[in-house]
Specification:
The complex is a heterodimer. Chain A is an alpha+beta fold. Chain A has helices spanning about 10-20, 20-40, 45-65, 75-100, 110-115, 130-145, 170-190, 390-410, 440-460; strands spanning about 120-125, 145-150, 155-160, 190-200, 205-210, 215-230, 235-250, 250-260, 265, 270-280, 285-290, 295-300, 305-310, 315-320, 325, 330, 335-340, 350-355, 365-375, 375-385, 415-420, 425-435. The chains are: A alpha+beta, B mainly alpha. At the A-B interface, helix 2, strand 7, strand 10, strand 20 and helix 8 of A face helix 6 and helix 7 of B.
Chain lengths: ~475, ~280
């Protein structure tokens, strides 16, 4: 595209290159085509997974091309930069001409332009040229924001126009695209997107950044007071709820229950309900039944802490907890792993599924252990984000919608009502054009013509004798 | 009579209406055309009734939500928007032959929803992520856009047929609108669809930001909607300044619609992501 360096027109050539709409179309199509890749190849997964899926050769090729994180790759960013420069240059290139049209104080009309229009509405009236002018001028003025009359002794031309400013709509759209990309850029430079898990009752002061190993200190602490999950009868999740307290210098500054779609925002940092999991409870109410005496002993056992049992039954400790224990390939739900230490025996492990109280009896030991109850402890997974660019993006959104509406459905419309003496009668011609939506403009002209005829027909005939206003 | 039955019945009304539109086109009898229009109005009534009933039924089940939450419900709403938008076009441009292309699309959407064994018509409760006021705004704007693109697709097909025999005197194509009118109408529909697709993507982005803390995440559904947006943006620019008119613009509107259908159905059925609401 570019000519050799040193040519006096070199800068002009670059300008022409970037101000071409062909470039816009090519870049838009390239963006569309390349974006498909990232929907077929899962993004930002474990490299080992890719290696397995694609084999060494393809893995290397994809790796070089950043296919595994393609929307942040240099070449995709380059396409975005190209479209940005293209949009800006195109707009500047055309804006000065549009500006002159939009901000003129006295719009000029050329009768010849209206006469060249092939589809015009024509009819005859008995009224005089002057009378028609005085009757029709208010009609045009009422329908159009600007109107003017040009008169010669042979004819009268009433011009009207509106929507000059709508020519700026397309620039609003282009500006909005720049705002969207700028907002995205601000977010990616100054913002972060992180993740943190907090067990119930605990607090954290920093989060892990997504797709990286770095951590970010928040400047305050998030404490998870409680987490709950509820289900529909069908087993589908109904609601995830985390009760959070924010602490600064150990003092609570904010308290809120968050659910999906209702996050907590503090100092520009947003905390979203994202996931959850089950943790081992801190203490468990355990029942020990002695085989010899048949006595039941209830004890509260803290995880990891050894408990002495009566009747010389030994010592017991809960070592571990699992939310899904598999017994002979079957999921029996929550279960505890305990260790019994009895005299003259090596310590041995026992499994205590929470939902099957008689389970340990089947072991037929000196003591049967069963779990009575415990409070399940959850951890909540929060998405924590900070994006100072979001308001730039949102302004872009509003401008984009407004701009598209103006560009697509509003136009700069001009009409001309020409009155020519034709024998004893007057010939009225209504014509008009707009900078877009020709079909709609034709309908408008027809409509205006009908309106004028209606007014002329309804006006009483004695109006001929009225004073000309 | 429950909503599913009403909607199954509506499928046949749309089929019936499509039949009359085609009959009116082939035999160019105004009476057939009038029957066709009244049948499609009846279809819209049935479709509306089905949607309203389903809404009420969801409240009776104690899981009340707008019926816009899964594939079945979105196909039903898609059929509704196509039929309503077509009726507006028919009234505004006073041409019935467009119905030959548009009404069968409404029928197909509803038939796919009602008859496909892979699509469940049971009313399910809302997942936590879908519980938002943005649901209605997002889904409605998207589908109004989809419907406009669907009609643009039908018009483009008509254009491509017509342009082969522009005069086509005596043939069936002579009843189609002039190529210029078809072209302009397609353009109007594409612009209308583009505006609504834009609003749909934006409401989706704002929703995503309030639910997950990011307005854009390159999720397959998001990306495909953007691909569709890029394609139609290219068409609008190409038409405006590079001179893509006529055949090229029509072909492009068809390609854009193919991308749109993939965004709507393909992504849900073939790819995974946040929008996997079956």
């Amino acid at each position: 595209m570019e000519k050799e360096n040193g040519s006096p027109n070199f800068l002009d050539d670059i300008w022409d290159f970037f101000s071409s709409v062909k470039l816009t179309v090519v870049v838009l199509l390239s963006l569309a085509a390349s974006s498909i890749i990232g929907t077929l190849v899962p993004q930002n997964e474990d490299p080992a997974k890719y290696y397995q899926a694609f084999g060494e050769v393809w893995y290397r090729i994809f790796h070089v091309l950043d296919i595994f994180d393609m929307y942040h790759s240099w070449w995709f960013q380059f396409l975005l930069l190209l479209i940005t420069v293209n949009v800006i240059v195109c707009s500047i290139d055309r804006l000065s001409a549009t500006w002159k049209i939009v901000f003129t104080k006295t719009p000029s009309f050329q009768a010849s332009r209206f006469r060249r229009i092939s589809r015009k509405e024509e009819f005859f009236s008995d009224r005089s040229q002057e009378k028609l002018e005085s009757m029709l001028r208010p009609v045009v003025a009422g329908n159009f924001s600007y109107s003017t009359v040009e008169k010669t002794d042979k004819n009268t031309l009433i011009f009207g126009e509106k929507g000059r400013w709508t020519r700026l709509g397309v620039y609003a759209v282009h500006l909005s695209v720049v705002l969207l990309l700028l907002g995205g850029l601000i977010g990616s430079i100054f913002g972060f997107d992180g993740f943190v898990t907090i067990p119930e009752g605990e607090s954290v002061g920093s989060i892990r950044v997504r797709n990286s190993n770095s951590a970010i200190a928040l400047g305050f602490e998030i404490r998870c007071d409680a987490f709950s999950v509820s289900f529909y009868d069908s087993g589908m999740p109904k609601e995830y709820r985390s009760s959070l307290t924010l602490l600064e210098g150990g003092q609570p500054v904010m308290k809120k229950d968050i659910i999906v779609n209702d996050p907590l925002r503090y100092k520009g940092i947003n905390m979203f309900q994202s996931s959850y999991g089950v943790l081992s409870p801190k203490e468990v109410a355990v029942n020990f039944q002695s085989l010899e005496s048949g006595m039941n002993y209830k004890k509260t056992v803290k995880l990891g802490e050894q408990t002495d049992l009566p009747e010389g039954l030994g010592k017991f400790v809960i070592r571990d907890y699992t939310p899904n224990y598999k017994f002979r390939g079957k999921d029996v739900g929550e279960a505890f792993l305990g260790v019994l230490t009895q005299e003259n025996r090596t310590p041995f492990e026992i499994i205590i599924p929470a939902r099957i109280p008689g389970f340990d009896k089947m072991r037929k030991g000196r003591v049967a252990v069963s779990v009575q109850n415990y409070t399940a402890r959850y951890y909540t997974g929060l998405q924590v984000t900070y994006d100072p660019g979001v308001w730039v993006v949102y302004s872009g959104f509003i401008l984009l919608i407004a701009g598209c509406f103006v560009t697509f459905f509003m136009s700069h419309q001009s009409v001309c009502v020409e009155v020519v003496r034709s024998g004893s009668k007057s010939k009225v011609t209504v014509s008009g054009f707009s900078n877009k939506n020709k079909l709609g403009m034709q309908q408008k002209v027809t409509h205006l013509s009908k309106k004028i005829r209606g007014i002329l027909n309804d006006a009483p005939s004695f109006s001929q004798s009225e004073d000309p206003s | 009579m429950n909503s599913s039955m009403v909607l199954s019945l509506t499928t046949f009304i749309y089929a019936f209406s499509a039949f009359w539109y085609i009959a009116a086109w082939i035999f160019s009898k105004t009476v057939f055309g009038r029957v066709a229009t009244w049948t499609v109005i009846l279809g819209v009534c049935g479709n509306t009734l089905g949607i309203v009933l389903r809404w009420i039924e969801s409240y009776q089940l104690g899981i009340g939500h707008a019926p816009l939450a899964n594939l079945y419900e979105s196909l039903v709403f898609f059929a509704w928007t196509i039929a309503v938008l077509y009726l507006i076009v028919e009234k505004k441009y006073k041409n019935q032959t467009v119905g030959v292309a548009a009404v069968p699309l409404a029928f197909l959407s509803l038939a796919y929803a009602s008859l496909s064994p892979h699509i469940s018509d049971s009313i399910q409760p809302l997942l936590p992520a879908l519980k938002s006021n943005w649901l209605i705004a997002h889904v409605m704007t998207c589908f109004v856009g989809y419907a406009a693109f669907a009609i643009a697709f039908g018009l483009s097909g008509m254009y491509l047929l017509k342009v082969r025999q522009p005069d086509g005197s005596g043939s069936l194509l002579s009843h189609f609108p002039e190529t210029g009118v078809l072209e302009e109408l397609t353009h109007q529909m594409v612009m209308f669809g583009f505006l609504f697709l834009t609003v749909g993507i934006i409401t989706g982005a704002v929703w995503a930001n309030s639910a997950w803390g990011r307005y854009w995440g390159w999720d397959p559904k998001e990306t495909w909607s953007l691909i569709t947006w890029f394609l139609y943006a290219a068409l609008l620019h190409g038409r405006l300044t590079v001179g893509w008119r006529g055949r090229k613009a029509a072909l492009f509107a068809i390609i854009g619609f193919a991308a749109l259908i993939f965004t709507f159905l393909g992504v849900n059925l073939l790819l995974s992501g946040q929008h996997a609401y079956r």
